[in-house]
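TEACHING EXERCISE
Course module: macromolecular assemblies
Task: Read the component lines below, then compare them to the predicted structure of the full complex.
Student: A.B.
Group: 4
Components provided:
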Amino acid sequence: MDAENKHAADKVGAATASLRPQQDECRWDGVEVLQYKQEGSAPFRDVTRQVLFDDPDLAAQVRYFEMQPDGYSTLERHQHVHAVMILRGRGRCLVGDRVLDVREHDLVNIPAFAWHQFRANADTPLGFLCVVNAARDKPQLPDESALAELRRDSTVAAFIRT
Amino acid sequence: MDAENKHAADKVGAATASLRPQQDECRWDGVEVLQYKQEGSAPFRDVTRQVLFDDPDLAAQVRYFEMQPDGYSTLERHQHVHAVMILRGRGRCLVGDRVLDVREHDLVNIPAFAWHQFRANADTPLGFLCVVNAARDKPQLPDESALAELRRDSTVAAFIRT
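Instructor-supplied answer key:
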């Protein structure tokens, strides 16, 4: 790096440093608590979304999702993968054809095109970090044929909400 | 998606789903606890590194770093950015020309070319998630001129370890 670039780099580094402290539990200074999705766009219940990092210099986004007790995310799949860490509470999630019990700090990998859905237990919220590629495809919802296939497994059939 | 791709996608999704439960505090099933860096390559003390997600389909890596009490990471900078969430303990970090107090769940953005260093408080470890682009440049260490510039601020001068 030449001297001019070095100077510019120093200024950039100093100008945009930021700390966003946690305020209440899993609520952050300067981070808006958003609707999970547009109402009526897909089935879900009692879910919020917070975008923790969305930096044009980062090839990924870091989001935090939280379900109230018994709340659930949309049953969906897509080409992009999810890297998930549970931050709060307990619940279960469908990944592919497996229903997994999850709790604080557990790691969940959701591979490309795996059907997935998260649900909080009845007595606790469930909150998790979810890292995704900044450039990604849109989720697909299951059609009747996909639902019938998923429901061939009785555990999966009992778990999913549609 | 045509039927053949749909079938292939279903198989992929089912085959590589994975849950890695937390075992002890911030230690995970199937995640190796690694040296932070090669000994002697750069100054640091009492730091470990764990790679939580390193998926070829993800444009980012998710790592977990942990410093023992008074341990510190290398003072360095680079073009790639860091998206950091503190997971455990308390400490301080230099970002650019600021020394920040950090604790559990705080978010820290480290922009391109900002000098940065983390240090655990004397009475607690400090552990944090750090999301980076999978494709990234190598860290730069400060030369004497950069150190002199950093040390013009007395708080920074007292904080950094080299």
